[in-house]
Amino acid sequence: MIGGSIPFHSIIKEKKDKDSKPRNSEKDEFFSAESGGYRYPFAYTSILVNAGIGIRYIKSAKHFTELSFNQGIVRTIYDGKVYELDEDGNIKESKLFGRNYLTTGFSYSLNWDLNNRKSNSWFFQLKPATWIQYPYNSFLKPHFSLQAGVSHRLKKHNSSYEDKVQS
Amino acid sequence: MISLLGLIFAGCKKEFTGLSTNANEIFWVTNNGADMPVRVMGNTASKTIILIVHGGPGDGSYDYTDYKTTRLREKYGVAFWDQRNAGSASGNNNMGKLSLPQMINDMEVIVKALKLRYEGASIFLYAHSFGGLLAAGYLVKDSNQNNLKGWIEIDGAHNYPLCNASSRKMLMDTAASEISKGNYTSQWQNILDYCSSHDPLSSYKISSQTETFAHNAEPFMGIKQRSSSLSLAEDPSDQLVNYYNLNHTSSGNDFLESLEIADYSDQLYKIKIPSLLLWGQFDFTVPPVLGEDGMRNLGSANKKLVLFSHSGHHPMETDTDSVDDEIINFVDTFK
Fold it and tell me: ipTM score here?
């Protein structure tokens, strides 16, 4: 999967921890879009496009999590040839045959700083997700996935968390 | 985010690459809202293809890809077809189209696709349980049987009312006999009490419960059963969707109830191609009476019924070698 997100609202609160030291709590609300695919060997390949909305919880300069809700479409492309009947009742190959489905899902990602510097922008991401594909045989087909990868934060969208902590 | 899943996305597509002694390929047939996979495995170079017509309905063909067909795949190509709304067959809003006539039409397209793809090959049917009803419906229609060299019916339910009535009778007769012998008396008494007061011909609900008893009774006769509910489809979520659709939607219930009156016994005389009927002696689900009915009514000059004394509803699981011997002998004779 490859995609991006744009924050549209940030909430920063000053709190005190149990030792009465000041601590910032930051949440970013964001829009996201992503595309990608998955393959079920010896059956089909699916291509996904999603749009979503979510909340990023910035735990520290080195760690943040994201909870997001996604809505999208998926197209399945079958392995091997696809045959169908033509108007005369003869078999013909159906080129580029596939089916479109809607998808709705939730995901929760955990992100850890990769480069351990103050200007951190690359994070390792672990993202469990659940989503449903529909209408699939007139019903819903559930999916569960665990994605692992890297995420990159552009500087202009970097969290104010570091500034607040450093000030 | 760049996911590692992308790395496995670029897999290779399985295309038909010609005949092989160890084929492993897939093609799909799309027909009236359903996309049905057909995996072809084994020795397609033999120019003999055995088409699996699985049971259920709703089960899928994946369960047959194991030891049950190992010897058959060494000698012939075996085509594992997932019927609509079964196994890995997919589509959008297609449950309203699920019916026996539609499935017979699907089977016509599947056989045509096999004949196009494996031109000149001899095709045989291997039909189990509900697949026996579907295969019979296909064979008695028009000139469909001319596409085949022969068919093998394994505990096939080509007559649902006879199946229901004989299942009840076999359960009651066996229960009385086993109780007198002191074998599993409480279990058999439970079955006897239910069957004595419930006629499976009167409602689908009773028919379904009788079928559950029929399945449960096999171990009481020493028949080993495999727990295979999760092996019916490659993807468990497909199995979940199919189970829900058949048992918890009005379309699914309408379809199952429509099968209760499906009966091809009086049309079996139309079937002239060689026929091999294989039955488990202790099949309470589709009793051997159905096999005898086939022998009585089939129009084939070459027909044979074989009973397996250590088997219930799945002789290919419990008497695998003997079943394979019969099938290989039959196919080699008529291919």
Answer: 0.89
